[in-house]
């Protein structure tokens, strides 16, 4: 049976940026576009050129993607020609293969929000699409408020679509802009659109999650005949978010009802990277990944109920709707059982640590990991700290040095020019063998700017480690992430530090404490210890 | 037109407790049951009496509810009579009006997980239900794995249902235990069940969110004829969670497609308490409320796009699928790079500041917001800091006091018991009118634990603000979020602080600096200043 090709259109970089608190930088946009391209998305909507500097810079850098890069904009305004509309010109100047123009399909919006006549609006749509097509672009029409518009005035809503279609639009995207339309309504209205003469392979669907049904609404449109699905990674987007491609992609690939009828550009190999891509986006946003996310959430294959866990041991299909490995996820079962221990042995083997199958220390390490993760540690993001935890339990980490004490001071006051300045200073006292070493550093960078207390502490620690100095000299702190893992005044701070050395190695360590300075210091100490261990540094004996 | 009554069945206290990291105490269970009762839920499933002490204690206290309290358990085991099954006896001993017994409807589970014959399983179901009915209880049969079972062996799956129905079960609940069934499959299979002779007003639906479609699946079953919906508050539950009643209830009440056909026990008045109930549950669980939750999320009615904001100003229905007040929520028009002048004027109007459309200060404020957002400020998450920025530009913020200097010390060292401890201390010097005030605080909480440098600084600042002390005494820091907005050593720290006062007001402020202590102090100062402004505190004159 030949399967029908569905087209995936990602709008993480445009509609996803409408999420409260989300503002991508240009390099972050490039990073996300590269991930989407790797995944096998057909269209990547990069933003609205001309609307803000970040979006303009993104396109100006001419990102190279297998996917069709698409610039978003709006149809020309009334009272001027498409040629003389500066907003439309900025979109075309981004020089992308495809452009997507939003226009009104709801009569109420035309008269209330735009304040123009219904005929003028149709003229704006047709002339704008025709202008893009004449410039050699693949044109998409984003029919804003289409479903609400259809319910209010079906004839006019369809006229708006046909104005774009007749002008040569490759895709007409049916948008449920306010997110309140139900799957059954989406299905029936999409069928009417096809009946009106626009073929399904020219129709896209764009849904929001305001009734928690964005995925179901998108699939209802596909069942009715639409062949392009718009969505975002992790369901990012305005208000409750857009339809999540992170949920739709595995559903389309793994559920027989869809997999037997349709194909998409995402391969099974690319699908195994889905969890990694989802987490990477959260990393960029510095968000705590949502545990309950379908397919890729940390809890998506966690079996807590006792009855479930014991059945899972007999046969995983008893309580799993798909194999977690297909999306790069893993089953989570109570730590103490055999499956947990064999996972641990595999992870240790990856680090070059061989442990026998029946070694009782395996159970102890698992207990320790679980207890520390309850306190806020995150060993998935801090592999070097995990390696140290395991090696400590196995007696493989020497005592290189002991920190006797430290003190950090942050002071804000006026300088001699009567300007307010902030200065941080750190003192670290370590004992190496029999020798005690005091080091002090301040936090000013080369330009004389304060870089904060953790910077001062890192510099003081690295300043004089005596016989170990050679091993530490090529080491630098390259990233620093802070997360509050509990709300309220009882908040605990988790710090993850990424370090790099002259050999190009990069490793991550974690520290947790109610005190951010203390959490940072713990992560710094792990970073230094891991480096010594990997370099085979000989510990000083007393 | 007469509307059909739908029955709501809540399982927050049983399936909701299967969420990773969730374990309710008995008083918390009572608190949640009271909230559900207030909301107008028909059945409250309290737990599994006999399975754990918390659930047994919950029922032993005989909670009084308008809703029908239901005890959960399982059908009797093979090889013994219903009368002699101790697990079943414990469920009946809870002495509730209704009991819900789970049993297998999937042949594979009967043979693989239970290891009994298909006939024995049918006998267990029938005898257990009949036993409960004979004891005067309203019996529900929870048909585990029903949909997967129906796909594998429709005859046997139906036989399991009919065994319960024939034995007198009031409700037969169709469970999609593994959460992988699609809405179209749920609809078709539910129709087949009704065709087999079990009337829809005896059928319930129990869905999970493993493909992000639990709400849509539940509604598909209702459209097919099922009349009881099971779910949980905030969609709590095993793996990705159960169908969310918090989403289903407003959908059923506010969407004409359902409201015109069906009625439920939740009144419009009770619906206005939905947001409060949702947040209260997060409070009990000590979780940060999910901003993107449909209807009740903090972002559910947040309008970030400039185009949307200008239309909302003309008519809120342009970009809102329901009136946020119906569920106790409110519109949010956050500030961001994409905000236009109309967005800004609307925000100012909400704060009670009328500015003329052509006031040149509007442009200046927007420029300032943009410049600061480039530095790392985030005004859509920190509305109080935004208000201060705007009011300062309009000359509406008095100089309440001046911070002359501060100093914070974090020290880690051994105490007199030779244990490593961390201690933070802060000194703040402010000038109020002509008077200079020095305050010092340390960071220890009531249990003697260090809460870090920002805590010490907040306490020192609040310790003595002379004539302003009354205004600050009922204020507390309730949340603290840190984000590094650029990678590498040039990282800038953004701190967002949420504060609350005795009048229940909650507001967010932001600070940005390479130095985390400095960023926190800036946010603290804004928090205090906003409070003074809102309370109409009179500034001291020199």
UniProtKB/TrEMBL annotation, chains A, B:
GO function terms (MF aspect): (R)-citramalate synthase activity; 2-isopropylmalate synthase activity
InterPro entries assigned to the protein according to its UniProt record, in alphabetical order: 2-isopropylmalate_synth_dimer, AIPM/Hcit_synth_CS, Aldolase_TIM, Citramal_synthase, LeuA/HCS_post-cat, LeuA_allosteric_dom_sf, PYR_CT
Reactions listed under catalytic activity: pyruvate + acetyl-CoA + H2O = (3R)-citramalate + CoA + H(+)
PANTHER family cross-referenced by the UniProt entry: (R)-CITRAMALATE SYNTHASE, ALPHA-IPM SYNTHASE/HOMOCITRATE SYNTHASE
Domain Pyruvate carboxyltransferase: 6-272
The family this protein is said to belong to: Belongs to the alpha-IPM synthase/homocitrate synthase family.
EC number: 2.3.3.21
Keywords, sorted A to Z: Amino-acid biosynthesis, Branched-chain amino acid biosynthesis, Isoleucine biosynthesis, Transferase
Pathway the protein acts in: Amino-acid biosynthesis; L-isoleucine biosynthesis; 2-oxobutanoate from pyruvate: step 1/3
Organism: Roseinatronobacter bogoriensis subsp. barguzinensis
Class of enzymatic activity (EC top level): transferase
UniProt cross-references to Pfam families, sorted A to Z: HCS_D2, HMGL-like, LeuA_dimer
GO terms (BP aspect): isoleucine biosynthetic process; L-leucine biosynthetic process
UniProt keyword annotation of Ribonucleoprotein present: no
Keyword Transit peptide among UniProt keywords: no
Record's protein name: Citramalate synthase
């Amino acid at each position: 049976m030949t399967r029908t090709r569905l087209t995936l259109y990602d709008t993480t970089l445009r509609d996803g940026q409408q999420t409260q608190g989300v503002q991508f930088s240009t390099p972050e946009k490039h990073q996300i576009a590269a991930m989407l391209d790797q995944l096998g998305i057909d269209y990547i909507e990069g933003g609205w050129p001309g609307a803000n500097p970040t979006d303009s810079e993104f396109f100006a850098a001419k990102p190279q993607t297998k996917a069709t890069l698409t610039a978003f904009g709006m149809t020309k305004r009334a009272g001027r020609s498409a040629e003389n509309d500066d907003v439309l010109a900025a979109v075309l100047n981004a020089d992308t293969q495809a452009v997507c123009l939003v226009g009104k399909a709801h009569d109420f919006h035309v008269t209330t929000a735009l304040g123009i006549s219904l005929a003028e609006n149709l003229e704006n749509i047709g002339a704008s699409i025709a202008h893009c097509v004449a410039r050699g672009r693949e044109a998409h029409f984003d029919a804003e408020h289409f479903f609400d518009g259809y319910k209010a005035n079906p004839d006019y809503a369809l006229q708006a679509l046909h104005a774009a279609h007749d002008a040569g639009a490759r895709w007409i995207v049916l948008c449920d802009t306010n997110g309140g339309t139900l799957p059954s309504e989406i299905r029936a209205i999409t069928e009417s659109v096809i009946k009106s003469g626009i073929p399904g392979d020219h129709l896209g669907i764009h849904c929001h999650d305001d009734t928690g049904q964005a995925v179901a609404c998108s699939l209802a449109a596909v069942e009715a005949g639409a062949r392009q699905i718009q969505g975002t990674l992790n369901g990012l987007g305005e208000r409750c978010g857009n339809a999540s491609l992170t949920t739709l992609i595995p559903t389309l690939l793994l559920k027989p009802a869809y997999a037997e009828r349709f194909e998409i550009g995402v391969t099974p190999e690319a699908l195994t990277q889905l969890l990694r891509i989802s987490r990477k986006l959260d990393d960029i946003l510095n968000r705590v990944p949502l545990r309950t996310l379908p397919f890729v959430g940390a809890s998506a294959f966690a079996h807590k109920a006792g009855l479930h866990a014991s059945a899972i041991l007999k046969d995983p299909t008893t309580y799993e709707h798909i194999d977690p490995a297909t999306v790069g996820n893993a089953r989570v079962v109570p730590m103490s059982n055999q499956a947990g221990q064999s996972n641990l042995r595999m992870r240790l083997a990856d680090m070059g640590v061989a442990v026998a199958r029946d070694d009782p220390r395996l159970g102890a390490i698992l207990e320790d990991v679980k207890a520390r993760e309850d306190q806020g540690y995150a060993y998935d993001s801090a592999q070097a700290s995990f390696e140290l935890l395991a090696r400590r339990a196995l007696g493989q980490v020497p005592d290189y040095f002991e920190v006797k004490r430290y003190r950090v001071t942050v002071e804000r006051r006026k300088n001699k020019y009567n300007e307010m300045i902030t200065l941080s200073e750190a003192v670290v006292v370590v004992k190496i063998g029999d020798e005690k070493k005091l080091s002090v550093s301040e936090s000013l960078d080369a330009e004389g700017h304060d870089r904060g207390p953790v910077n001062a502490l890192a510099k003081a620690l690295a300043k004089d480690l005596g016989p170990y100095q050679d091993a530490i000299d090529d080491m630098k702190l390259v990233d620093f992430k802070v997360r509050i893992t509990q709300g309220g005044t009882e908040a605990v701070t988790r710090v993850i530090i990424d370090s790099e050395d002259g050999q190009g190695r990069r490793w991550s360590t974690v520290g947790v404490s109610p005190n951010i300075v203390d959490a940072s210091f713990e992560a710094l100490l792990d970073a230094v210890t891991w480096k010594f261990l990997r370099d085979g540094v000989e510990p000083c004996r007393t």
